[in-house]
Amino acid sequence: MARITVENLSTVYPNGVRAVDALDLEIADGEFFALLGPSGCGKTTLLRTIAGLEAATEGSVSIGERDVTTVEPGKRKVAMVFQDYALFPHMTVSENIAYPLRVRRQPKARQREVAERTARSLSLAELLDRRPGQLSGGQQQRVALARAVAIDADVLLLDEPLSNLDARLRLEARTFLKRLQQEIGVTTVFVTHDQAEALALADRIAVMESGRIRQLGSPREVFGRPADTFVANFIGSTPMNLIDGAIENGLLAVAGAKLPSPVDLSDDSKVIVGIRPEYLTLATGAAGITGIVSTIENLGVSSLVTLECPDGSLLGLTVREQHEPAIGSTVTAVPEQGRLLLYGKESGMILT
Ligand code: ADP
Ligand code: MG
Description:
By secondary structure, the chain is an alpha+beta fold. The protein has helices spanning 43-51, 93-103, 108-121, 137-150, 167-184, 195-201, 219-224, 229-234, and strands spanning 4-12, 18-27, 32-36, 58-63, 66-67, 78-81, 155-159, 187-192, 204-209, 212-217, 241-248, 251-254, 257-260, 270-275, 280-282, 289-298, 302-308, 314-320, 330-335, 341-344. It has a 6-stranded mixed β-sheet with strand order 6-7-8-3-9-10, sandwiched between helices.
């Protein structure tokens, strides 16, 4: 086990694309760390540079105390699971799992023993003699994981390992992965474009955009207090409300309402007001944002109600089914204490 230190790391492809851009990152020993961001933001490149499969153009990567920037991949003590699993189709499950040991010229008996032990812990014992083509997606995913953990790597790198599974299996595999990581305690970097997956699994999350980190924090921090409007937009299963506002006579004017401002700002300051639909409740007689109910979408346990406010802006809030208002009725949405966030109109950065 080991921590990972990335310093001023840039990875530039021969075609000039700067996929990782002067990035600093420290991942603690035993941590389950998620790299989250939209497609093309550089997650895979960062992971591959940590693994040594891409060369760093500038900066350094250390694993534990060792600077591995120029160390070849096979000597870094990292294990990687790729998005498409990359299993060998002509080998059995047992041979696939034992492959890294075979490459390291371990004795045959030892290969079989490790394959069996790992397969047991990943519920694959019945499948050792099958070939990948005879397995379901979820089983293939577990074989890929087994192959990665069969060697005692210091670091486990997972590139969207759940993205090829259907929704239900994905949830199961997610829980399974969390348990496995807790058991073996290996420092894990998990790449995903799925914010829910990152929030559910990770000790800490780095939200990436264009080769850089926009925010780094615990799931609670990143969800509860996104550092800028990019992160605010990206995190959350319902989109955060981001509505133009301004400070007038010491109050926050937003969507036709006047609310106490959560931040002390001078009059005429232009802001973007952020509030999650989950942190708004319907109430009468309280200070809130009034609007006409325009649509209601069923989300399962709750419904997403969209209000059209006097100034034309739209405000989403979630309610339990039994509290659904009538379409066309006028209602007031009240923000939960401390949940209103303000962002700079120009910078998009959170105002503290
Ligand atoms: P992500 O995993 O977040 O989707 P990638 O790391 O795959 O992002 O890609 C980051 C950027 O680098 C993208 O603009 C992508 O087009 C580019 N890129 C990825 N791989 C290569 C490559 N082998 N050669 C040139 N450009 C690449
Ligand atoms: Mg990728």
